[in-house]
């Protein structure tokens, strides 16, 4: 965490001034801005967030109550309130908890501060994801999956720059999936590194509480979390193992093919380079076997000794049964998004395509909005078109504006491609 001294605050102001003036990249005047803030502002500009806009309230009272009741973080709220409630009220701050899509589930604290926060729609039911509301602590913490503090002028939107906030993501203790974030928001007194450490400790306490309420894993049961991660996490025999990228790809393929895969087939699914030899693959499998234990990975053909419960196969099963909302809730992002292994790329594109088609067919504006405002869906013109067709009239304007931008970019790209083709035509 970078300190919040005078030099840092000056750099943040310079960054704000440069970008508000119309620049879409930090210029020399913004050279003192923290890299985390500069990267977040770039993403906010790319998502076409308006610097003068306000967060949208997407859940009415009934929808909010139902969403709270069914959300895993509801079980952690007693601990969160115990640790943060008095601190927020006495310090004239707010405690807030949002879901993984950045929608505020609970916003509580000092009454005067709550009243002021309503002026910028920092209220339960509003979406504060980074792609919808620009740089802010809970939204950016979800975007980068780590604790974040945003001070005053570091906020992307002007109406939020009188505030300071710190937030930390909360993970499912069983799968490692991001469930949401816990946040402390208030005035300049929060512009201190201790605020970041405080919310991080609260998030860890919430995860510990959820772990106490989660049944212990069955011995020998294999569970793989690979959605939204470049490196998968495997739960085996009560252990949590973070895998290398190559080992992640191997286990994803074997989870998809429980019947097993021969050596030549596995080579084809893993490596783009056809010159990679079976010796290289056997060395990777040997290292993986040493990591997992001798009884997990078998050969001839290569397969797992036990059934693998993987998050991406769970999404597949829920889609097959017609449980679209449950599938969307389980989907934490593209399957091993950085992987270029041919077998993984096919699985990733197939799963995302099936889920997207199901969401469009269902036509639920809440589910479509979760996809559209995610990091993987912010440029998905198909989903934005579907959202534009289903969203209530009161929420249509920002959706229509975003769709117009995407369609203009699509049209411009097609025109550029045609021109390139004309220039290169013999």
From TrEMBL:
Keyword DNA-binding: yes
Keywords, alphabetical: DNA-binding
Keyword Membrane applies: no
Annotated protein name in UniProt: GAF domain-containing protein
Domain of life the protein comes from: Bacteria
Domain OmpR/PhoB-type span(s) in chain numbering: 238-304
Pfam families the record matches: GAF
Segments for region (Disordered): 1-34
Upper lineage: Bacteria, Bacillati, Actinomycetota, Actinomycetes, Kitasatosporales
InterPro entries linked to this entry: GAF, GAF-like_dom_sf, OmpR/PhoB-type_DNA-bd
């Amino acid at each position: 965490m970078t300190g919040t001294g005078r030099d840092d605050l000056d750099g943040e102001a310079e960054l704000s001034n440069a970008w508000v003036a119309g620049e879409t990249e930090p210029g020399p005047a913004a050279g003192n801005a923290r890299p985390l803030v500069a990267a977040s502002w770039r993403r906010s500009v790319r998502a076409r967030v308006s610097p003068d806009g306000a967060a949208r309230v997407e859940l009415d009272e009934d929808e909010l109550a139902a969403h709270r009741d069914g959300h895993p973080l509801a079980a952690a709220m007693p601990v969160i309130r115990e640790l943060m409630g008095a601190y927020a009220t006495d310090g004239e701050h707010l405690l807030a908890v949002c879901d993984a899509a950045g929608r505020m589930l609970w916003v509580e604290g000092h009454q005067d501060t709550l009243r002021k926060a309503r002026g910028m729609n920092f209220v339960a039911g509003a979406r504060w994801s980074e792609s919808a509301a620009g740089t802010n602590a809970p939204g950016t913490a979800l975007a980068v999956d780590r604790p974040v503090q945003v001070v005053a002028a570091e906020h992307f939107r002007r109406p939020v720059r009188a505030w300071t906030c710190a937030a930390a993501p909360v993970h499912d203790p069983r799968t490692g999936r991001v469930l949401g974030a816990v946040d402390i928001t208030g005035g300049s007194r929060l512009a201190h590194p201790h605020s970041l450490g405080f919310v991080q400790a609260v998030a860890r306490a919430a995860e510990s509480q959820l772990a106490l309420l989660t049944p212990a894993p069955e011995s020998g049961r294999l569970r793989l979390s690979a959605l939204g991660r470049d490196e998968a996490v495997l739960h085996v025999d009560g252990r949590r193992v973070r895998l290398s990228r190559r080992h992640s790809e191997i286990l994803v393929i074997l989870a998809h093919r429980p019947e097993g895969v021969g050596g030549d087939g596995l080579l084809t699914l893993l490596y783009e380079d056809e010159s990679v030899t079976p010796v290289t693959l056997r060395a990777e499998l040997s290292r993986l076997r040493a990591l997992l234990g001798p009884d997990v990975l078998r050969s001839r053909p290569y397969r797992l000794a036990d059934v693998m419960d993987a998050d991406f196969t769970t999404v597949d099963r829920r889609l097959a049964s017609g449980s679209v909302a449950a599938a969307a809730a389980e989907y934490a992002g593209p399957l091993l998004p950085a992987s270029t292994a041919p077998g993984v790329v096919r699985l990733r594109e197939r799963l995302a395509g099936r889920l997207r088609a199901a969401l469009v067919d269902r036509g639920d504006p809440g589910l479509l909005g979760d996809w559209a405002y995610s990091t993987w869906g912010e440029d998905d013109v198909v989903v934005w078109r579907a959202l534009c067709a289903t969203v209530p009239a009161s929420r249509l304007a920002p959706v229509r504006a975003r769709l117009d931008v995407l369609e203009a970019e699509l049209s411009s790209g097609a025109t550029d491609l045609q021109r390139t083709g004309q220039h290169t035509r013999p």
